[in-house]
Amino acid sequence: MTEPRPPDDGPAPERGTGRLSDARRRDDNVVAVVGGQVVSESPRDLYIPPDALEVFLDAFEGPMDLLLYLTRRQNIDIEQIRVAEITEQYMHYIELMQTLKLELAGEYLLMAATLAQIKSRLLLRQPATEDDEAADPRAELIRRLQDYERVKLAAERLDDLPRLERDLHTARAARPELVKRHAEPSVDLREVLLALGDVMRRADFKQHHAVEFEGLSVRERMSTVLARIGADAGFVPFDALFDPSEGREGVVVTFLALMELVREGMIDLVQSRPFAPIHVCVPRAQADDATPDEVDGS
Question: What is this structure's pTM?
Fold first, then answer.
């Protein structure tokens, strides 16, 4: 990272023993140290937004995050932390925050006081006695930094794992509602004739002797068919309307009556599916009006 140059209100203050401070001792025109190389002039085309430093400082999650950053920037182990230099750099960032009028949480100020206390204890460390060896004032700070670093690394590893709704997305498209429509197939005339043939064959089997019948009227049979359909709730199998005991003549009269009723729109022939049994029913629009009396009067 490149450290920002302080305002030109006077001689630049010497801060710490870092590389930038050492370079400024050799050259007052040092702007920054990048990759170990001293930069004495700002690039002509370099533009630093006024809010860049504010965004950088605002990126830290807390005082421990800032302190860990300052420690890692020195490329040293946490146990070898240079409290004096870290304290001075930390205070420098606190001053920058105050200059930029950023809201300082009490945690930042508390950490600054802790660093100042550790620095003073290191400067005024008392010699160890035979009974009680002087403890390292940095021990507690080092332990907290190590704990924070472990938690931070664990959080980063967890964040790298695939996350639902960020890296993985479940399908949420609703299945379209399918409406099953059952279209009643139309009755082919050939199927009607085939059904008639079946009835005729059964009539032949039932005829044991010839009986002379009185002449049958198609109109009367139409009334009989309508009465039978009305008695069976308006829905009768096709072959149930035929009486094989009447022989071929009765079957033909009944068939002609059915065809006449179909032609006049008083009944319908329906099937549930192709090649299924044929049924006779009264059209819905005329279910309440089709009566035997109307047929007789027509």
Answer: 0.37
